[in-house]
Amino acid sequence: MLRSLIALLALGLCSAAAAEVTTYADVKANGGIQLTTAQLNDLMPGAKVISRTQAGSTRTWENKPGGTLNASSDGRGVTGGRNAYASAEGTWKVSDNGLWCVKINWPRAADDWCRIMFKVGSKYYGVSRLEDNAPTMEFELSK
User: Fold this and answer.
1) pTM for this prediction
2) Structural domains of the chain in order of their starting residue, each with its CATH number
3) Closest C-alpha to 25, from 123, 140, 129, 112
């Protein structure tokens, strides 16, 4: 009986740790910490980025120190078309008011967005506005 209870508790903790973060409300509920302009200016130049959209697309690029990037996509979602891998050039910057902005000229639908960035555990999430129902973009950032 005790083993069963421990197993159920362990499963519950694992599923809570792996909870999906899909809205700004989820970011807040999971203790997300907003990154400052200074933190973004330290983190973003030279960062290797893995971006996961809610449409199912995974894109990768490196933020080159000069503000440019070369991105590739697995083709899910609308980036490259239906299961069509794509690559594209783009730009990135950190704005004076603490937004991370990216423009990528994908073949089918260009990205042109700015996000308020939060760290939740080892992942980063960006939102376009500080409203509970605002959808997130998930990022993995490394150097």
Assistant:
1) 0.81
2) 21-142 (2.40.128)
3) 129
